[in-house]
Amino acid sequence: MVIIPPRHFVVVENPIMRKADPKDPLDVEIDKYGQYKLRHGDQEVRLEQDPFPLFPGERIVGRIEPLQVVEENCALRLRAKRDFKDRYAVDARTGQLIGGGLLRRAGDEWLFKGLATYIPQAEAEVVHTVKATILRPNQALKVRAKEDCVDHEGHKRKIGEEWLVRREGAYLPDVNEILVEVITATTLEEDTALHLRAIRNFRDAKGVDRTIGDRYMLTREDFSEYCPDVNEFITSVVKVTVLNNCQWCVIANPVGEDGTTNQLGVRRLIKGPAKFFLRPGESLDSQVQDVIVLSADEAILVRARESFNDGSRTRQPGDKFFVYGPREYWPPLEAEIVRYNIKAFVAIEPLNLYLFQPQLVVLAGGALLFLIMFYEQPVAQIRTAKRQALLSKNRQSTSQAGDA
To answer: What's the confidence (pLDDT) of residue 384?
Structure first.
């Protein structure tokens, strides 16, 4: 006799064929030869009942097993081995058994969710146990549709479509859903911003319609924490650029007035004090530079890259000129510094006279005179009558020596 304790089951192979009342162990079919009819190659799951004998040809597969209790936030993934009516199918909306059972086709898969006791059926097999994914605050779960289905919010999804589940707590994926990854939101500080790119047309979290390839930026003013949508991805996390009142920088390809389009080939000078984020497509032409402070005996040599007016005259491309101290010098975009830290060759501070770039000239009698090249300060252009006479005399002597 086979005894099945409460909350146990056993699988019987080649079970006996029964008549109208399957619960009556003696209501079985017998052929014309007095032999019991068996369902050869089939199996039958028998639950708790009165002790019963095995008919000739029947045999127990394995041993008597306890019924499996499916824990909360878990489920069994089941697959139908053949067409049958699922007697234990539950209506997802009401949680009640479906009257008359639910027709399952061979190959169909479904979930048996806990907390509940799973009663096995010979027509179905357990594929594996599915555990819920726990979503903490500021996390989202990326899900992909394995087949056309309806998600937990009632939205229709196409095969291959991806979406985010942002609901906190346990999430148990359906049989037609594939878990891709858990995404943790990026925290936006006062000194950080996100650069993003749209990979398909969609409406973002701010309600702005984005088209594929769009690049845009989010700061803490938009979100304190941000989890990117499946239709976009983070290209970079940028730090704020801070300039004090003695610093400057040049932005290459700055964003125009429309706030979206980069002005390719354009450069923009930013003077401090300032605080800003580089927008997508922008870059610093060079690092943040300090303003050039020139003392009275210092100068720098500058070359014009394009025509511009420096406040005193118009400079043409290629012009070289000196900028003298004492002053602060903010290099314009139209010029570049050729040489730094040029010291005065002669410095007479009481007269405020500073000589740069000297050239030796032999005068009559072997005397030497320093001439100033490219010097633009008025004090350098002072020429006394005696000095002019000496220069004129030197030129005449040089000319006569050449004629001889």
So the answer is: 40
Say which residues have a Cβ less than 8 Å from residue 83's Cβ, sequence separation at least 6: 103, 104, 105, 106
Mean pLDDT for the chain?
A: 83
Instruction: For residue 33, give the amino acid letter.
Output: Y
- Count how many residues are written for the chain: 404
What is the Cα 383 distance to its own chain's centre?
68
Determine the residue type at 243: L
| Cα–Cα–Cα angle for 201, 203, 208, rounded to 5 degrees | 115
User: Are 299 and 342 within 8 A, CB to CB?
Assistant: yes
pTM above 0.85, yes or no: no
Q: First CA to last CA across the chain, in angstroms?
A: 147
Please report, as a single letter, which amino acid is at residue 258.
D
Instruction: State percent of the chain over pLDDT 70.
Output: 83
Q: Is the dihedral of CA 252, 257, 263, 269 positive or negative?
A: negative
- Taking alpha carbons only, the member of 147, 149, 111, 107 closest to residue 128 is 111
Q: CA-to-CA distance for 377 and 381, rounded, in angstroms?
A: 7
Residue 361 near residue 369, CB atoms below 8 Å: yes
